[in-house]
Write a structure and sequence with these properties.
- The chain is 40% helix and 20% strand.
- By secondary structure, it is an alpha/beta fold.
- It has a single domain, classed as Rossmann fold (3-Layer(aba) Sandwich).
- The longest helix has 16 residues.
- The radius of gyration is 14 Å and the shape is globular.
- The N and C termini lie far apart (33 Å).
- The relative contact order is 0.16.
Length: 147
């Protein structure tokens, strides 16, 4: 049985959200290693420079400076080396059009950012196994987690 930690990459420009995400992970009974980047350009640079050690899952905020989450998602899914990485998109928006566009671009999970810490723990707890399961390429199931 492997005890290798789940390698999580969080891309979010909100410092407080990053701290809450880290604390929420600590509340879960799952071994994780969290790396954070603060904007889309940093995310894409990180993925390029760490191609031998890609994350198990990416949590990607939609509204970020320099390069937004949708642009990053599109680049990730068009890149042969990165396209199979599970991507969990999250935002404070609940726009059906935006969510539809994210899934068409290749997002595996969409999370409406919860307003309190307890719900954040629940959302991450549910998103991790969904995002990291092996999904058949032509039969992808999309998930929306909304608290």
């Amino acid at each position: 049985m492997s005890t290798k930690p789940l390698n999580i990459l969080l891309a979010d420009d909100d410092f407080d959200d990053c701290i809450f995400f880290k604390k929420a992970l600590e509340e879960l009974k799952v071994a994780t290693h969290l790396t954070t980047v603060n904007d889309g350009e940093q995310l894409m640079d990180y993925l390029s420079l760490n191609s031998e050690h890609l994350p198990s899952v990416i949590f990607l905020d939609i509204n970020m400076p320099r390069k937004n989450g949708l642009e990053c998602l599109s680049e990730i899914k068009q890149n042969e080396r990165l396209k199979n990485l599970p991507v969990v998109m999250f935002s404070s928006s609940n726009s059906r059009d935006q969510i539809s566009k994210l899934f068409k671009t290749g997002a595996n999970v969409y999370i409406h950012k919860p307003s309190d810490f307890a719900h954040l723990i629940q959302v991450i707890h549910h998103a991790l196994p969904i995002a990291t399961e092996k999904i058949v390429e032509n039969n992808q199931v999309k998930y929306i987690l909304n608290w």
